[in-house]
Amino acid sequence: MVINTNIAAESSASLLATSSANLAKSLQRLSSGSKIISPEDDAAGLGESMKFDAQSTRISAASNNVSNATSYTQTQDGFLQQVGNALDRMSELAVSAQDATKTDTDRSLYNAEYTQLASYITSTASKDFNGVSLFDSAAKAVTVDSDATTWSMGTVNLGAAAYTGATASTIGTTTAAISALTAVQSAINQLASDRGTVGANEARLSYTNDALTVQKTNIDAANSQLSDVDVATESTNYAKLNILVQSGTAMLAQANTMPQSVLKLLG
Predict the structure, then answer these.
(1) Domain count of the chain?
(2) Is residue 12 domain-shared with residue 122, that is, in the same domain?
(3) Greatest Cα pair distance in the chain
(4) Does a structural domain hold residue 38?
């Protein structure tokens, strides 16, 4: 039996320090909800988790871009519906202006409305969405994934010849009305094609957004397996460590009293 070196106390103190450190780490996991408190806990897992986090953030950005593009196409279609109504009325006026019982004075009244509707279509061609033209011929590149891959969205050009032919026409005379009707019918055919393009764009964007949502969910689930703490398991571990710390503290106290038994030998 020795006095200077208390091996039992040193061993108990070492075990208590380990249990206390593990208890503190378990408490951090429970309070933060994260399994990885420091890189030493899981260096490889931390690296994978960081990459998953970054990819998930990029997917969110791509999804926002797709949602904005969807809003863009919906705005386009809203205007095109009104252009369609205007063209329908213009075609009606062009037919009415060909009535043999009408005079050119009557036709001038029809022409006044026709001209205003044409002006509406012309002004619609210059509309924009957040400063980006809605109806020009420039292709719009939409990012569709976390790697910023782009998809070229179909365009609608209200400045195309089919539209300008109708808007430049008049129905002041029977001959002009006949010509205008042909031009308006061509514009209606072009509009039908353009609305089909917008509809196809919306469908593509909808599928893309759904795919991004599924991808983000799966990536977040994989990241959760790496980094999120299992509260039930960790609570059990915390209870165990708490008991170990309490028992270790008690045993250290016992070990520290052992050298006192030497006094019995000296007595």
Answers:
(1) 2
(2) no
(3) 141
(4) no
Read off the pLDDT of residues 36-60 as tens digits, 9 standing for 90 and up.
Answer: 777 777 788 888 888 989 999 999 9
Q: Is 40 inside a domain boundary?
A: no
Is residue 75 within 8 Å of residue 134, measured between CB atoms? Answer: yes
DSSP code of residue 134: S
Nearest to residue 191, comparing CAs of 91, 119, 69?
91
**Residue 203 and residue 211: Cα distance in Å, rounded?**
12
- Residue-number span of the structural domain to which 11 is assigned: 7-33+229-266
DSSP 87-105: HHHHHHHHHHTT-TT--HH
| Tens digits of residue pLDDT in 82-128 | 999 999 999 999 999 999 999 999 999 999 999 999 999 999 999 99
Helix or strand (DSSP H, E) at 129: strand 128-129
Domain assignment of residue 24, yes or no: yes
Cα(198)–Cα(1) distance, rounded to whole angstroms? Answer: 92
Read off the CATH number of the domain in which 187 is found: 1.20.1330.10
Tell if the pTM clears 0.90, that is, is over it: no
**Stated length of the chain:** 267
Residue 6 in 3-state DSSP?
Answer: coil
Token digits for 199?
């509809």
Beta bridge partners of 153: 140
